[in-house]
Design goal:
Layout lengths: L8 H21 L3 H21 L5 H10 L2 H14 L24 H17 L16 H14 L3
């Protein structure tokens, strides 16, 4: 089973970074104001908490969650994201989610990719867009659906 020691430091940063990108890409696809952004961020972080408590989580998923629990891990991901997105616009986030940032090692890769896809889906469903004062709108916008499809394609999942 894959864990942090299964990767070079650069590969590991990409694996952990992909967890953030899964949610960020969907959030950037259809900005939903401060309230929506907070709901989407909470959905992403709650996915980490759920994975930690899930006895069925793969070793790789648990290792990524453990990385986010350390200040060094969070700092490394923030720095990597800053470098990746220097000069980028919010709409560029989805385009940065590529298969090259996914683990290619056997074992935990399919479960990890499924988990990333689930994170992006949770973020998409966290806040309705297009409504007024919380009424109306759609749960998942067309832009978010397109981004979810791009993520699924990048991950090789359905």
């Amino acid at each position: 089973m894959a864990n942090k020691q299964s990767f070079t430091p650069e590969e590991w940063t990409k694996v952990v970074e992909s967890t953030m990108l899964a949610g960020m890409a969907v959030s950037a696809a259809e900005p939903s104001g401060l309230g929506g952004t907070l709901k989407e961020a909470f959905a992403s972080s709650s996915a980490l908490a759920e994975a930690k408590l899930d006895p069925g989580s793969s070793e790789l998923v648990k290792a990524v969650v453990a990385e986010f629990e350390t200040s060094e891990g969070r700092s490394a991901v923030q720095e990597a994201l800053r470098k990746s997105f220097a000069g980028a616009k919010p709409a560029d986030v989805g385009g940065r989610f590529r298969p090259s940032s996914m683990p290619r090692r056997p074992g935990d890769a399919p479960a990890f990719k499924t988990w990333l896809r689930a994170i992006s889906q949770k973020v998409a469903e966290a806040s309705a867009t297009g409504g007024f004062l919380g009424f109306g709108g759609v749960q998942v916008s067309e832009a978010e659906k397109a981004t979810l499809a791009d993520i699924a394609r990048a991950l090789g999942t359905s």
